[in-house]
UniProtKB/TrEMBL annotation:
Membrane topology: Multi-pass membrane protein
Family indicated by similarity: Belongs to the UPF0060 family.
Coiled coil location: none
PANTHER family hit by this protein: UPF0060 MEMBRANE PROTEIN YNFA
Protein name as annotated: YnfA family protein
Key words of the record: Cell membrane, Membrane, Transmembrane, Transmembrane helix
Transmembrane segments: 7-27, 33-50, 62-79, 91-108
């Protein structure tokens, strides 16, 4: 159950971080204005809050593991939101990152 909760929190955090960055990008690079930028800043703040809800207590481990979710999530976001189609190297790279995330976060450890 802890793994499922942790993965769900990673996915929610990715939604806020990637979505927030995308909103800022749209506001600045696509000239959509300050409302988009402000919404992005709020979403990025929510990402920071969601990350603190992880059951694991080690900040460095959580952020390192989250990196795998961020990489895969960013490619998925680009595909859905911008029509960017990842190639096989993007997909393999994201898979490697997700395996790394699982090793960092969920490998059995002696405490």
């Amino acid at each position: 159950m802890l793994v499922a909760r942790s993965v769900a929190l990673f996915v929610v955090a990715a939604f806020f971080e990637i979505g927030g960055a995308w909103l800022v990008w749209q506001g600045v690079r696509e000239h959509r204005g300050w409302a988009w930028i402000a919404a992005g800043v709020v979403a990025l703040g929510l990402y920071g809050f969601v990350a603190t809800l992880q059951p694991e207590a080690d900040f460095g481990r959580i952020l390192a593991a989250y990196g795998g979710i961020f990489v895969a999530g960013s490619l998925a976001w680009g595909w859905v939101a911008d029509g960017y189609r990842p190639d096989r190297f993007d997909i393999v790279g994201a898979g490697v990152c997700l395996v790394g995330m699982a090793v960092i976060m969920y490998a059995p450890r002696r405490h």
